[in-house]
Amino acid sequence: MDSPSDDVVAYTYGFIGGPYGTVRAQQAGGAVTIPFLPLASGPQRLTVRAIDRAGRSSGQSAYEFNVKSGHAPVSQWKLADPAGTTSAAAETGTAARAGSGVTFAGAAPDGTGLTSTAHLDGGDQAFLTPDAPAVDTHGTFAVSAWVRPERTDRDMAVVSQGAGSTGAGLGLRRGDEGPVWSFTVAGQEVSGGAPETGEWAHVLGLYDAETGLAQLYVNGHEAGTKTKAEPTRTTDAFRIGQGSGLSAWQGDIGDVRAYDRVVVPAEATELGYRKPKSLGHWSLETASDGASPEQSGRAPLKLGAGATVYRVPDSSCLPELDPDCPVVPLPLVGDGHLQLDGETGYAATEQPVADTSGSFTIGAVVRLADAEPAHPMTVLSQAGEHTDAFKVRYQPSEHAWQLVMPVKDERGAAETVVSQIESADGGEGQGHRLAVVYDDATDQVKLYLDGVAGTSATADFPDGWHSSGPLQVGRGHTADGWGEYLHGDVDEVQAYAGALRDRDITGLGWGTDPCLC
Question: 19, 145, 224, 479: which could form a disulfide with 190 (CB 3.0–4.6 Å)?
Answer without folding.
Answer: 224
